[in-house]
Amino acid sequence: MAQVAAAARQDTTGDMTTGQPPTRFWQTVGLILVLSIVGLTYEIAAGRVLAPFFGTSLVTWTTVIAVVLAGFSLGSALGGLIAERVSIAE
What we know:
The chain is mainly α. It starts with a helix and ends with a helix. The chain has one domain. The chain has helices at residues 2-13, 23-54, 58-89.
């Protein structure tokens, strides 16, 4: 049981002797990378869907980018609030 606890502790704190970041860090970086690619894909798709109706003007692309960034901001804010509540409860 102590070995499992030590392994879990090392997974969250990283290897202090070699300076390697924890595994959770790389999982988070990978998740952010994948979600950013998906967000960019949705952004381009939304611009293409709106093009027949509104054209491909600067205003159209500015609006699409603004909505995507607002969604990222709102999601980050809500995620931060949830993370704070979880850390306070523990």
